[in-house]
Amino acid sequence: MAFLIDGKQISQQVIEDTAAEVAEFQITYGIKPGLAVVLVGEDPASQVYVRNKVKRAEEVGLNSIEHRLAATCSQQALNKLVDELNTDPMVHGILVQLPLPAHLNEAEIISAISPEKDVDGFHPLNVGALACGEASLVPCTPLGCIIMLKTVYEDLSGKNAVVIGRSNIVGKPMAALLLQENCTVTMVHSRTKNIEAVCSQADIVVAAIGRPEFVSAGWIKPGATVIDVGINAIERDGRRRLVGDVDFTSVEPIAAAITPVPGGVGPMTIACLMKNTLTAARSQVLARELEREAG
Ligand SMILES: Nc1nc2c(c(=O)[nH]1)N[C@@H](CN(C=O)c1ccc(C(=O)N[C@@H](CCC(=O)O)C(=O)O)cc1)CN2
């Protein structure tokens, strides 16, 4: 039986650590870090995620600001709101919940967010910094995966890691972070030949392909660690269920450690958003101090 990597428990620890650091930050600088969350439209899942983000932000002691725009809002109106948040000194982190309604340009809005307030780590400048191995605001889901992996391994150096999926939000930043940890990283995707054979060599498999229960027992080396990023709603036995990209029932007896769905990577995403907001507030305060000193 594999060791279950408990995302609920680890994320709670991240939340508690961040809350303590936020309190210390406030004492030191007299500033409450602010997180602005923008929701466009009424997608039911997005509403739940935004509600949870606001709740968690309040829990860690952030100044939580929520903006809701109608599904019909124009690109111009969304750009204007982001511009206002970019210049608001009370706001240190900005997050626009994705996906956006189809008529809005996601790439344009991500690029409009000030890179220093981009707590999602999706801005091209933050993506570039991560690729160069520089300190930056890192996408929350891959950051959460690394924190989970570090509860399993003292050192990730030299591990063979395979990332399944090449999205900008998870697959690509995940590979960059594993590389920073000195893993030997292979990315596989829908066009990869012999994907199963490649995965079966891995010490660490991160599945982020968005296909329910796609990864099965034959893909996994005995004793490997499996991180399942997928959250797929399916119907089974007449009931709606959430499953990952990994067939948990067949993989769990083979792996040494595995994340469940739900209760695995998902809660880490929101906890890491809180951590990133504090990181953003710290570097903004530091940058202002340096500007002041330089005259
Ligand atoms: N701007 C962003 N948009 C989106 C992101 C993101 O990181 N930034 N990620 C996802 C959605 N997401 C956060 O926004 C998210 C998804 C899932 C969970 C989570 O805790 N899931 C639970 C199950 C929830 C359920 O019961 O439905 C779990 O896995 O245990 C948190 C956050 C897309 N958009």
TrEMBL record:
Q: Which GO terms describe its molecular function?
A: methenyltetrahydrofolate cyclohydrolase activity; methylenetetrahydrofolate dehydrogenase (NADP+) activity
- The identity of this protein, by name, is Bifunctional protein FolD
Q: Out of the domains of life, which is the source?
A: Bacteria
Give the family from UniProt: Belongs to the tetrahydrofolate dehydrogenase/cyclohydrolase family.
Q: Which InterPro entries match?
A: Aminoacid_DH-like_N_sf, NAD(P)-bd_dom_sf, THF_DH/CycHdrlase, THF_DH/CycHdrlase_cat_dom, THF_DH/CycHdrlase_CS, THF_DH/CycHdrlase_NAD-bd_dom
State the GO CC annotations: cytosol
State whether keyword Transferase applies: no
Gene Ontology annotations of biological process type: L-histidine biosynthetic process; methionine biosynthetic process; purine nucleotide biosynthetic process; tetrahydrofolate interconversion
Q: Which residues bind NADP(+)?
A: G165, R166, S167, I231
- Gene of origin? folD
Q: Which reaction does it catalyse?
A: (6R)-5,10-methenyltetrahydrofolate + H2O = (6R)-10-formyltetrahydrofolate + H(+); (6R)-5,10-methylene-5,6,7,8-tetrahydrofolate + NADP(+) = (6R)-5,10-methenyltetrahydrofolate + NADPH
Task: Read off the HAMAP family from this record.
Answer: THF_DHG_CYH (MF_01576)
Subunit composition and interactions: Homodimer.
